[in-house]
Amino acid sequence: MPEKSYREMNKRERRRYSLSARTARSVWINSIVLGLVALVIGVALYAMAVGQQYIKVAFSLSRQTSILVRLANGERTSEMADEVMRLYRSLSPAEREKQGSPEYRTLFMNVEESDSYAALRSILQETLSGNDVYDVYLAMYDEDSCAMVYMVDPEEKDHMNPGEWEHVTEKGMRKFLDWDGEGELYDIGRTEKYGLMCTAGVPLTAEDGHTYAFLLVDISANNLLARTRAFALQITAALIAVTSLIAVIMVILIKKSLVKPINSITDAAQKYVIDRKAGVKDTAHFASLNIRTGDELENLSLVMADMEEDLAENEESLRKIEVEKERISTELSLATRIQTAMLPNIFPPYPERTEFEIYATMHPAREVGGDFYDFFLIDDDHLCLMIADVSGKGIPAALFMMISLTILKSCAMLGSSPAEILMRANQAICSNNPEGMFFTAWVGILELSTGKLTTANAGHEYPAIRKPDGSFELIKRKHGCAIGGFEDTVYRQYEFELEPGTVLFVYTDGVPEAMQKDRTMYGTDRMLEALNKEPGASPKTLLENVRSDVAAFADGAEQSDDITMLGIRYFGHERKE
Q1: CA gap 17, 4 in Å, rounded
Q2: What CATH superfamily is the domain 65-223?
């Protein structure tokens, strides 16, 4: 098939690559192949049958002729044959090679001029002229020289005189000498002088039981080939006519029972698509086909008719679903904007404050996320920092996130310590949490005048800190259970002294647990490397470096969790550069 769609092909290409054309080509090719196979098998069987017939005729002819020889010539044939073989065996190999010369013929002249030879040649000549065979002759096999020695040969063209000989194969000679009298005695072989030849015959035995000669009949392969060739021409003509007729009938039947119904279904499908694009309703393209083939094609047309009816019935439902999807998408977009608006998103948030520089981001895995961060001044000297990760994703996590953020912020505004903030938030969540949701959180309160940072951790990731002239490292302190787990959980808090120039980095598990397509995780070691990439960078640059490094690591893998980060650099009473 060409690399084109059905619409892109012209009429000529459509006809060429149509099922009708391919079916016709396939039928004709199969018919030709079947005809050739039948021709080969038929000719082979005919040649075998004709060959067997020739063998039977030759064997029967040799047997009948041998009877005539015994009746007409009697013991004189045996005496003559023994004399020829005696003279032949008395010759040396060098003398035998002189056959055909006057000197060689003189050695057997007495035999050739005898009355027995004349009588035998007359009998064989009469047999040869009355039958369609190549030669009828009398000969004997000599085992020592592996040769066939002629005694009487009436054939004129390739006449062999008494005592002349030909080389034979050991296998062919043994077949005649060792014959047990059962079946037909023959041998088929190729000779340099006569080509492919079939020789059939019977042995002639004397009264004392020894075989003195064989009455042999030769059949040339030319006769067999001629008859086979004539038969092949006849059967070829017959097969061409028969296979052509069968091919035409099959093409007509296939087109009627297969191609035409398929084309009808194809046309109906094209009209259906055109009408649907044009907005035409209440159509019955497939129901009007009326295909009655009684097979899978009829079933297909009925199924397509049902499909068209079902699609028409379900179209209104699909429209309603699309409207509902648009409404949900609009609501999700609104929820995203509401969630974003709840988090601090204006930087710098306190331009008049020179004690610190802060920046935070949240990248939800879905339209809305379960992570959140917040920072606010409890009073003029205390800055509250918090970051949390709600269990689950999507709308439920976003709703729980807004509730959790409100509770944490309310507890912080009461002037509580980080441990008390987490404890009160945990009690509030556990008192009414039918769905069993929870969240991890990290809360820190920074005293701006002294740099004292008091923190508490409820199952959240360890924060990273970089002191002046140092590198980022994780602050690993024991933390409590996630909020929403156990109502009576007590949380510890820890204090750190931040020197001017110290940078603090907090994050959710979406950073270290970011994954590649093979499920390899990003990890905190890579995160620290990204943080230390630019030692003097601002919090915004630090967060951008981590975010871009995580994206490069994921290499196109889908974000599996919300990624939330917060960074703050403490200056104390020194002014920022």
Answers
A1: 11
A2: PAS domain (3.30.450.20)
What is the distance between the alpha carbons of residues 257 and 264, in angstroms, rounded to a whole number?
Answer: 12
* Contact between residue 158 and residue 164 where contact means Cβ atoms under 8 Å apart: no
Place of tokens 């012209």: 10
Check: CB of residue 560 under 8 Å from CB of residue 392: no
Tokens of 254: 């296939």
Could you tell me whether strands 452-458 and 439-447 are parallel, antiparallel, or unpaired per DSSP bridges? antiparallel
Please give the distance of CA 531 from its chain centroid, rounded to a whole number.
Answer: 48
Q: What are phi and psi of 132, to 5 degrees?
A: -85, 70
pTM, two decimals, is: 0.50
Indicate the angle between helix axes 19-73 and 115-129, nearest 10 degrees.
150
* 354: pLDDT strictly greater than 80: yes
348 prior amide bond cis, ω within 30: yes
* pLDDT above 50 (res 387): yes
Count Cα neighbours of 324 within 13 Å in the Cβ-side half-sphere.
6
- Both structure tokens of 66: 């041998």
Sheet containing 494-497: give its strands across.
371-379, 382-390, 439-447, 452-458, 494-497
Q: Does 3.60.40.10 match the CATH number of domain 344-570?
A: yes
Give 341's contacts (C-beta < 8 A, 6+ positions apart): none
CA distances from 456 to 332, 382, 441, 506, 564 (A): 33, 16, 8, 13, 18
CA separation for the pair 57, 362 (Å, rounded): 106
Question: How many contiguous H segments (helices) and E segments (strands) does the chain have?
Answer: 15, 16
Kindly list the domain boundaries of the chain, sorted by start residue.
65-223, 281-342, 344-570
Say if residues 116 and 76 touch (Cβ distance below 8 Å): yes
The string of pLDDT tens digits covering residues 253-294 is 777 776 777 777 777 777 777 777 776 766 677 667 777 777
Spatial distance between the Cα atoms of 550 and 528, rounded to a whole number of angstroms: 12
Nearest to 215 by CA among 264, 268, 176: 176
Q: How far apart are CA 213 and CA 204, in angstroms?
A: 5
